[in-house]
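writing this on my phone so excuse typos. first protein, seq and then structure
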Amino acid sequence: MCTLEKRGEIFFLTLTGDDEHRLNPAFIESLRSALRQAKDQSTRGSALVTIAQGKFFSNGFDLAWAQSAAAAGGRSAHDRLVDMVELFRPAVADFISMPMPTIAAVTGHAAAAGMMLALSHDYVLMRSDRGVLYMSELDIGLNFPDYFTVLVRSKVGSSAARRDILLKARKMKAMEAVAMGIIDSVHNSGEATVEAAVRLGEELVKRKWDGEVYADIRKSMYPELCFVLGLANKDAVASARL
């Protein structure tokens, strides 16, 4: 599950526990609840840093939860997986709409939907000594949801990198990922990664940006992503600060 804590102007969204932080309906709702709290409590010049306890940042959708339905005689595993895909879509939209900069401190494995969770942030920092980025769908015989592929197209500039992510199911360590333009920086340990994320957050909050303007500009950068996420474009001119 998730917790939210505010220190100064920085919100800390923590994926708690030592498990794989797999995304099932309860986890997704906990994540969205924390984001709603951060949005409601935000002020001019806020930032959000996402961190995870344990070995994993997130290992994607909770396939065991989906499979348990069939064993119990309930809805099929496929139907439950479809449910999780559609429940996670608005969570990605929440990140794209957040009225503040967002920073992911990836201190463990981020696979499939877990990698999409990381890429939903404005900045992604990663430790070099442990953890990989990995889109596992091709290896396990699953199609990509439309918003997954659009998120990768929106956030990863290199066509070769996009090919390796989606059509090669490449497992990327931090140094490879930064060289491919997928993440922003690499750090020696989990602690160093979180410290760097906090430093970046502190630099950004000093700018005292208007959060709604920040969110509108972010959305304008990713029109295709906003379309598949159901986010309306806002045509407005913000008043300049004099």
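second protein below, same order as before
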Amino acid sequence: MSAPVQVHAVVSGRPDGPTIVLSNSLGSTHRMWDAQLAALEARFRVVRYDTRGHGESPVPKGPYTINDLADDVIALLDRLDIERAHLVGLSLGGMTMMRVAARNPERVNRVALFCTGAQLPPRESWLDRAATVREQGTGAVAESVVQRWFTPEYLSTYGESRKYHEDMVAATPAEGYASCCEVIAEMDLRGDLPSIAVPTLAIAGSDDPATPPAKLEEIAANVQNGRLLVVPDAAHLANAQQPDIINPALIEHLEQQ
């Protein structure tokens, strides 16, 4: 366990609205939520942050654990004087928010989990990726990562988006990326799921090779109050590829009484 870090955060939207905290995927920054921003800012106080080791956040030396990432979220809530918030995360961000929801339920209103899993074996593949990044930098994996983030049709149509996201991955500090790979390698949240009591929306991309719909189905089935949404024609960054489907579904979930 390491001490919480003061993660880089951007606060926008309605100061008087309910707070929503958005947690990014491995290899991205808070900018991965750009396609949700306008819709959410009209209704919520929006807090986006960069996971430790990513973007503009500090890069402590690894290894990190899922509890370290959860501690960073609680420290962020404390810093911003937020008693309770809606928690939304994608992939690594979803894993972080599951841990917070299970461990710190008093800080959580509702949860939305995108393209994530309670466990993502095999462990060795994550350790191998961590080793590659430490040796060669994140640029070595940027192309293959983005190929999992979007469907082939999307990537061939939107070349600028492909380059933008490859550059985002390549700009991630190697130690931060590798240490977060180690988080995923060691993480098993399956035992946490039954203790997540708040309403939880699990969103899968139908064509996601990294966290296929069965991973989100497992989450929705094992939390106390879960619901599954499978988004067609979407891979791992479903929020970026299909915002016209995801934004209304997310808002509806968060605004339910």
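The radius of gyration is 17 Å. thats all i got for now
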